[in-house]
Amino acid sequence: MENHTRCSDTNDPIDSFKLPKGKAGVSILWPNAWTNSIKKLKDGNERVIAILITASQELCIINAYMPTYNTDSQFEYTECLDIIYDIIQKYQETHKVILCGDLNGTLLSTRSNKHDKMLKNFVAEMGLSTGQDICEKHTFFHHAWSSSSQIDYILVQDKKLVLNYTIDEKSSINLSAHTSVRVITTIDIPAKVKSANKNRKAKYKLQWDQMDTNQYNRLIQQDITAIVDENNINTQVDILTNSLVRAGNITIPTKLLQLKGPKWKASPEVQILIKSCRNIYKQWQEAGKQKEHPLATTLKLEKRKLRSKVRMEQAVSRQSLYQQIMDNPNTQLFYRLINRNRSSQQTSTNCLKINRELNFIPEDQRRSFASYYEDLSVPKEELFDNNYLNLCKIRQQLYEQAMDQNNLEIGKTAHVWKLKNQPRIEIRKSIVKSRMMTGTYILQSDKHKFTHFSTEATCQLCHTESEDIVHMITTCPVLSTIREKYFIDIKKVILDSCGPAKWNTYCNNKMEITRLILDWSNFKESLSIGMELAEKLEQKARNLLFQLHIKRIEILDARNIK
User: What residue segments make up the domains of the chain, in order of their start?
Assistant: First the structure.
């Protein structure tokens, strides 16, 4: 069960044994299956709460525990009535209102104290009633049986909501001073089971470019008549929405973006094995999925290879982390170890290996742990990575060559921004290209540097090597399809203009090709690039870099990598 509850000491907690009589709390309970249809309201106080329910008719349920009758209770009673009045005024235009609870006042004519008069006036003003004739049966019985009255109610503004109104008999097993009041309504509340884990749902993307437009329009036209004939605007919107969803489901193909289950980064080798398993399974499925079929044995062996490869990579990753911690313990690695050990996997071992020594005795293990964490707590100077420094210098040289100052003239627009009368998409392409030219396009190697090496420099697409601009433009296997599609045009234009000899001489490695794509003016003299060829190269280079950028962002978003 779910609930919406407030107590008299919600804002100012009081020990339970100090709570005075008549200062308990108020609560609304409902089945878990209704949770998606219910909204808790902030309106009210510690005696008055309310919820909204989305059902066959919109509902606003107000539950109140009104103040107990005493000498000066009319002031607090009036305050609670004012709060209920405000809630009813706020929601009565859009919702059916139900007021219920211990109202500590009666609607019977046999009693007429201060609370009774205020309650009767309020009920008459708001048009509230039980929906049926009020019976004389009492709902409250004093523990000493010195008095009884009818003070518990379920009141509605629309009498058509109530099918049956019942006050239960006082039972010997009911230890409360109150009996229960029950109402059967005409409202149907659909049970919507809340998903335990939203990440368990597969994610799909609509392929709008492959939509069957004619069938889509035909399906929409079939429902337009029903919309025109309907007078209720809410029903019209529902019909239109359902029609659009139904037409989309039938006519628009979908592409799977994410499978069910937790996120997991697969290496290129593992992805190849996964694809192989899928292909073999499809072939086996087409053959009838017989257990004796040779494809069943092949699939079993391929799955075994996949599991073996995954376990091997996990073991290598663990060993690499442990080795880094032993070689250079620091705060970042320490928290990586803690986060890794927070997983739900249960492991057990009776041996602790530190400095190539095996400790089986618990006391020795405790001493080893104490010594290790004592050493880990001592601040140490971060080791300087000379190899990374050399890579940064090489990359900086490439950027300086790509942005050679000799190719720039004061007062003259750089060729990347020569976009007169071009559509907006070309401006976006130029922005991406200029960021790559100037070194302001952030790749994984840049994050590695800016986060003081706490982030890995490895490419998050292929996991094979450090991701810098050369890797992205010329090497990353995940982007190979885009690269081959657009780079062939660039190479063909140069070969047609300059011949294969110059291409093989000046564009014979990945660094030179990167320079050419980023800024063709570096090869203006060596490749004899004229204005016509320059315009073609600029256009095609912009297209290549922009498509690489888009594909990279799509893959990272699909994997929820920032």
Answer: 2-185, 200-258, 268-377, 386-558
Structure token digits, residue 113: 């104290």
Rounded-to-integer distance, Cα 115 and Cα 433, Å: 77
Per residue in 53-75, pLDDT (tens digit) is: 988 888 999 999 988 888 888 88
Phi, psi of 33 (to 5 degrees): -65, -15
| Domain spanning 2-185: CATH superfamily | Endonuclease/exonuclease/phosphatase (3.60.10.10)
**Structure-block tokens of residue 307:** 């599991």
pTM greater than the 0.70 cutoff = no
Sequential DSSP letters for 211-240: --HHHHHHHHHHHHHHHHH---HHHHHHHH
Digit-coded pLDDT (tens) for 203-252: 788 888 888 889 988 888 888 877 877 788 888 888 888 888 888 889 98
Return all residues near 382 (Cβ < 8 A) that are at least 6 apart: 330, 452, 453
- List CB contacts of 236: < 8 A, sequence separation 6 or more: 227, 230
Whether 154 has a pLDDT exceeding 80, the answer reads yes
Question: Contact 100/63 with Cβ under 8 angstroms?
Answer: yes
What does the DSSP assignment read for 524-550?
TTTTT--HHHHHHHHHHHHHHHHHHHH
The H-or-E segment that residue 325 falls in is: helix 294-327
